[in-house]
Amino acid sequence: MSGTLVLVRHGQSEWNLKNLFTGWRDPGLTEKGHEEARAAGQALKARGLAFDIAYTSVLSRAQTTCAHILEAVGQSDLETIRDQALNERDYGDLSGLNKDDARAKWGEEQVHVWRRSYDVAPPGGESLRDTGARVWPYYLHVIQPHVLRGETVLVAAHGNSLRALIMALDGLTKDEVVKMELGTGVPVVYRLNADSTVASKDVLG
User: Fold this and answer.
1) pLDDT tens, position by position, 152-163
2) Which of 15, 87, 94, 145 would be a feasible disulfide site paired with 20, CB 3.0-4.6 Å?
């Protein structure tokens, strides 16, 4: 029996638009972000997907994206679990700063290392590895059991929390994962085998 896992990064946020480090800060979606989330729902509806349970972070941009998707597939009342294990990577002292201003303050190379390395955290924040250290156990113990029972599960979260999860699902190296980009509002549909390995992966966008 194979289950289905759908991962969706939230639609464009107001701080994505302003080129700010967001992390655990909580800006809302832009109008484009709302449209991206609704379009993700329509794409999933067109595939005939219906969900058994949904998971999202405690941040509003992911929760709103999740709500738009569920509304589009006609499941607005679906049980939805919110947990900070799925939150975006915490950017620490960079949170709220314009990325160009951060480069001016710390230098292009240092900011690039903080943004793109696997295991170097910005001051007061998390690396991608740190983010994975909370995402992976939550997935294994809470989300994956539903999928392995043959259910269809929606996870609406963030660029880095989902990159960490995709790293594990796809077996990416730390060099491969730092080069991976995840578009806003683009569903990634996994079908898993009974032994938790990936049977198929389909990016809808």
Assistant:
1) 999 999 999 999
2) 15
From the list 10, 68, 126, 158, the catalytic residue is 10
pLDDT at 165: 98
Distance (Å, rounded) from C-alpha 130 to C-alpha 197? 23
pTM of the model: 0.96
Helix%, strand%, coil% for the chain, nearest 5: 45, 20, 35
- Say what angle helices 159-170 and 128-138 make with each other, to 10 degrees: 70
Can you give the residue ranges of every domain in the chain?
3-203
75 is in an annotated binding site: no
Distance between CA 17 and CA 33 in Å, rounded? 10
Fold topology of 3-203: Rossmann fold (3.40.50)
Q: Is 34 a catalytic residue?
A: no
Q: Which tokens sit at 84? A: 């900070």
